[in-house]
Structures are given as structure tokens and as C-alpha cells.
Amino acid sequence: MAAVAPTLARRIARPGMLPLCSRPQAWGRAARQSPGLPRAPSLLLTQRRAFSNNKILVELDEGSGIATMKLKSPPVNSLSLDFLTEFCISLEKLENNRGCRGVIFTSAIPKIFSSGLDITEMCRKSTEHYAEFWRAVQEMWLRVYGSNMVTVAAINGSSPAGGCLLALSCDYRIMAENPKFSIGLNEAQLGIVAPFWFKDTFVNVVGHRVAERSLQLGCLHSAPEALRIGLVDELVPEEKLQDKAAAVIAQWLALPDHARQLTKSMMRKLVLDRLVAHREEDIQNFISFITKESIQKSLHMYMEMLKKKKG
Ligand SMILES: CCCCC/C=C\C/C=C\C=C\CC(=O)SCCNC(=O)CCNC(=O)[C@H](O)C(C)(C)COP(=O)(O)OP(=O)(O)OC[C@H]1O[C@@H](n2cnc3c(N)ncnc32)[C@H](O)[C@@H]1OP(=O)(O)O
Asked: Which run of H or E residues covers position 130?
């Protein structure tokens, strides 16, 4: 996979080529196989297929049609260009498999779901690098938010900024009920601004007032607070998280696919279309923003603060 990743990264990045997400997704794609009766995945005698790359483990239960994508990029599952590329390859494989109807995103790293965008990718790099990186961030969001599959985030650790965006892009969020785990779009704390599509996704989950306050203050919400403001849908003990996520997906999959998919598309289309229509402009905005000396200084200070906290 290591050899494949840079090739795909270039494919995502090259403006002349069709981006991966130009394939129709939740809007205008044929329904997946008919749902049949709701079935508890754990009761099925089924075959499990697994594949993995360097940073993501994927397991597909062919009986239930539910896959688990486990993020495994130590130390903190930061969303680097390589990670995002491998993530999109894995998700595309599942999208193309008509037997797969639902995905659980979770982490293989104890206490961390994802630490968000890899800050080192945004520090002192070339314009070309920033363009490639930001296109990959967009691609991840377009794929998850626009997925035809039922998507559930099983949040088994802290999940700031880009990690929170991944969870927000799913259909349902279940978090481990550990008050030490936090989640939120904390960009303001780093001296940066959440882009409009992060904000739109957040508003669609928690509503305008809660989103505005949380974004302006760069809040990281503890798990109980995240439940209270509707940022996550439920809390469960950590050991029950994966079973609960599978049970929720089975429940959603009990409905006819076409009705659920068209409804999802209707709810999300405006927000998705907005980025699709302004993708290049959004990349240019990111580059102008991130190359400002004041922003580079803020990011540098934030990284120093992380290191000091450790030592
Ligand atoms: C008006 C126009 C606007 C246009 C704007 C366009 C774009 C805006 C731009 C960007 C948007 C960005 C969104 C983001 O996602 S930014 C990333 C935000 N992430 C964070 O704030 C998380 C920071 N990390 C933490 O809080 C902790 O690390 C964490 C709670 C995740 C884990 O704590 P723990 O104590 O277990 O581990 P640490 O010792 O802190 O970390 C280990 C190791 O990992 C490094 N690291 C942590 N997070 C990141 C990261 N996100 N990227 C890169 N590296 C990270 C950390 O520095 C340690 O490294 P080392 O010291 O071991 O070398």
C-alpha cells in the first residue's frame, strides 16, 4: 500500500484529473441490496473479510454487510496526507462493494479517536503541498458526508477538530462515556478558523446557536457535555461501544435503502454542493490563510505548547 499511496495522492491532487469524488455518491447513485429483515450481526454465522493498509484496518462482516474501519496511525491518528489517502482508498473499496451497506469508524489507538488534521502538514510547506493536502481533506469529507452507506462513529477517545469533523460527517455518533475524552471544533484555540464546510456540518448536527458559541470559543466538550448539546447521540461504556455501533447500523439498515439514501441526500445536498462548486476556491483560501506569517507562528506556538505539556 505504501507504494500505491503517493500515486493516489497525486490523483487526488491533480486539478486536470477527475477527483475521486466526482463519482455520484449519495446523490444519484443506485440503491444497495435490499435490506431484508433486521438482523443482529453477532447472531449471524458469517464470513468476515479483512484488509488493511499501513494506517487503517478494515473488517467486513459479509452476513450483515457492516464494515469496521479502525484508524491505526500512532501516536494520535492525526490526519496526514498519507493517512487521508489511505482512508479514501479503503472507503472507496467499501463503496464499490455492493455487499457493504454500513461502516463503523473507530480507533485502534487507546484514548484517541483522532487528533485532527496533522498540524505538521500545515507548517512551512510549499504551496503545492498545501493544495495536495487540502484537496485530500476535502476528499475525506465529501466521501464520508456523501456516502450512500450508513455511517456510525464509535468514538473511543478524544476527537478534536478534524477528528470531530469525521465523526460529525457520520449518520450517528456514539461516544465512550469517559469524561476525560473530549470532542469539538477547537480551531479557534489554535488561532485558525474552521472552514465553511466544517461549520456547516457542525450546524447541521447541533444547531446554529450552539455551533456559533462552540466555534467562537474553540470548545472541546467532555463526553457528557457533548451528549447534552447533541454533538454525540449517545454515550455507552467503552466495552460496549462496538456492539452498540453494530446494533445501531443494523437498525438503520432495516429500512429500504433507496428511501434512506434519498432522504440523506436531500438533507445533505446543499452543503455538499457548496463545496463541490467551490473546491478550487476553497483550496486557494486555505493556501492564502495558512501561508500568513501570523498563522504559521500560531501553529508553531501550539505545537510547542503540546510538547511542553508532555515534558
Ligand atoms: C477565513 C478563511 C478561513 C480559511 C481557513 C481554512 C482552513 C483552516 C485550517 C485548518 C483547519 C484545521 C483543523 C484541524 O484539525 S487542526 C488540528 C487540531 N488538533 C488538535 O488541536 C489536537 C492537538 N493534540 C492534542 O490535544 C493531544 O495531542 C491529544 C489530546 C490528541 C493526545 O494527547 P496525548 O497526551 O495522548 O498525546 P501528546 O503527547 O499530546 O501527543 C503525542 C504526539 O503527537 C503529536 N500531535 C498531537 N496532535 C497532533 C496533530 N493534530 N498533528 C500533528 N501532531 C500531533 C504531539 O505533538 C506529540 O508529538 P511528539 O512530542 O511525541 O513529537
From this structure: helix 127-145
